[in-house]
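Exam review. A common question shows you a sequence with its structure tokens and asks you to describe the fold in words. Practice with the pair below. Do the first one on your own.
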Amino acid sequence: MDFLQDYLTAVKQKDLYRRNLTYEPIDAAHVRFDGKTYLMLASNNYLGLTHHPAVQQAACKAINQYGTGSGGARLTTGTHPEFAELERELAAFKGVEAVLVFNTGYMANVGTISALMGPEDVIFSDELNHASIIDGCRLTKARSVVFRHSDMQHLSQCLAQAPEKSRKLIVVDGVFSMDGDIAPLRDIVELAEQYQAMVMVDDAHATGVLGQGKGTAAHFGLKDRVHIQMGTLSKALGAEGGYVAGSRPLIEYLINKARSYIFSTALSPATIAAARAALSLIAQDPAIVAKLLDNAAFMRAGLRTAGLQVDEGETPIIPVIVGSAATAVRLADELRQAGLIIAAIRPPTVPEGQSRLRITVSAAHDQQELGQAIEKITAAAKRLGL
């Protein structure tokens, strides 16, 4: 098994080696590492709900009532009342007929795409889609057509070349996880209707962020024209898991055919209860979403004013492109020494030459601390000649 060490040596030489660092969460915006407190700017905990008292209390109550584990797959022994309530509440929140909860967003994408599409079908996938979408497409053995990122002219050309009678699916991230930009969903839906294709939107990074938290379809006023909405419970909702929202026949179909749902032990009662509490907070108080977007705008504007190349987007994902993997790692290390945790994103997550810092902002952040972070990021970038 010498190939294992050969691979590890190769990725280290290319500054692509990855390792786990153990951070002790203090609250939604700070962690402790080696006895020192850091500002967390790498988390997808967009609304800071992991540490909200109502969310924590709901999880504890569910443990006391239902125990720590589910006991099995939902179709055998794993379903408990919290699941039915969460799915009903998510459906009402999203304005759809039904919802199905999966163990992760990854499993929701893989299970849904592979259940819907087969060897005779065609999938149209944005080139910057998440790995879970890519893997789901591969599992189908369908023909996968990758169109240039958010290029509607290219997508139109691809759709026009597909067999007229084939089943077609257009699948995109609602908010792209590494760039933070929003898919041009209105144009996608119009093309889908023209060419009789289904539309699936991955709202992992849009749930709790866009459309008053309801996602990309709500953001564009298109919830009745998007066939499949995937989302996660593990980011803005501060829990774990994923879900698929859509028509009742779609959900019943997935219950009977999505292998990642059928053959997985269900999530714990505490996790589902936490997600329910978080969803209730968002539904009852949209101001928390407004605070997130305000903090994101503050951070983005501060970095741009300081001279960094940052786009004018509106989501809490703010990439600072630095080029080489080595530069990204060095910059992240310098910022860690300055008390900031920011992820260095490198290939294969992003293309060669597009390594970056991926800054993520939360509603739990204080703008005074964000201002201090802007100063530290700017100073470190200037030292590296960026």
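Now try the second one, then compare your answer with the model answer below.
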Amino acid sequence: MSARIVSTSRAGDAMRERSAERAGDAEAPLVVRVHADRERQRFYGIGSSLTQSSAAALAQISPEKRREVLARTFGSEGAAFALSRTHIASSDFSEESYVYVPEPDPSLESFTIQPDRDNGLLQLIQDAQRMPGADFAMISSPWSPPPWMKDNGKLYDPENRTGGRLLEEHYDTFARYFVKYLEAYAAEGIDVWAITPINEPQGNAGNWESMHMSPEEQRDFLRVLGPTLREAGLDTRVLIFDQNRAEMPEYTEVVHGDAEAGQHTFGTAVHWYNSTFKVYEDVLEAEHARHPDKPIFQTEGTIDSMSADSSCDGVCLEPPCGCEELYVWWQNDAWYWQKEATDWGWDWAPPEQRADHPKYSPAFRYARDIVVGMAHWIAGWVDWNVVLDKRGGPNHVSNFCLAPVMVDGPTDTVYYSPTYYILAQLSRHSRPGGVVLETEVSGPEGVHATAIRNPDGSVAVHVFSEAEADVSGVVEVAGERFALETPAASLQTLVVAP
């Protein structure tokens, strides 16, 4: 039985590989024990999203560098992402707002995905699919239906802090809109694996494309959408909710728990924006206990709130800033391991919520969320934009964020950040069709672990340490004990071949 260790760390490792050594019977400060006979959820993989903003960012660099980025994210010799997500019509990460049926037309005869051809999104997805060895499942989500289907007649309305609601008379229209989209994308060679009824149904204060949809409204819409998909001969899966974890159980109980709507739901989609450090293990466990046959997917997470500085053509972390302080993350690996990032909650949350939104390390947040999430029933994990420009865009609402891969067009430069290596390391060794195994950790606080038996029979044990000191440990797996020297601030993956 051979074994190796892959490491990404604050010390500078970027998926560095070394041989694993057997450990003796001596006690160790850290013990990670994998129970190979206690199987948990089927795993569907890890990935990142293909947005129109990603297409625009990649258009800024040379064709050779663009192809390199797609190969290193979706190609089998790169991160081998197994999942991706995109938006149905525009989102906040589009250069402009658009829909597929702009004028009132309940027949949908005027439906066209031509905007996605014109803005590069369609080409981006197709090119990602063509990378050597690429094989990923696509999840598609609308941020809003066309305005004429909604009670406010707008894609979004920041003045009144709302995205509006779907008119009941257009439940059938919107359901057929999904069918038109799925068929049009299939005709372009893109078979969408799953959809969500709406992105973030609890709203985003109307700051960009959105639509409110209560759990009761989503339940009623599913009673229309499900049969409409089946009548069209589509077996596309439906993931409900698609917003933050803390509010998930109350929402899903209404939808999954409904005898009629529940027949048409495959699983639950969640985001991570409730907190910069909590994974909500208790919520994930409770959700699985209520609906064990409905897998939970993380469909969005990003390093957000990169605020625009009006005094400069750039971005400022904590206004006011001088221009020389812009882009502090650009090609700066160390920044990603420091607790310097802030999120929407740091800037805008009411005082009673701010304790959940302290400054944080982006590398910690990614590694912790995936490793701990897998250990608590997350069945697939999808990042938001796979690539953005150095500013964190472009997009039409100045909602600047970071991506695993950042590019700078004027210098034709590509930066693969530590979050890219964390995602790539976890993706390459947590393959779709694998089964997560129960894992326990004994040792210092701040060390987390999960394990998966992959389809090829290998077992990968992911150990993330947010501790400030190195820790000596052992991993007990498959009847063997392996030594694991765990550096401070590191993600290590022990891969045991069958």
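Model answer, second protein: The two ends are 7 Å apart (CA to CA). The longest strand covers residues 30-42. Full marks require stating both points clearly.
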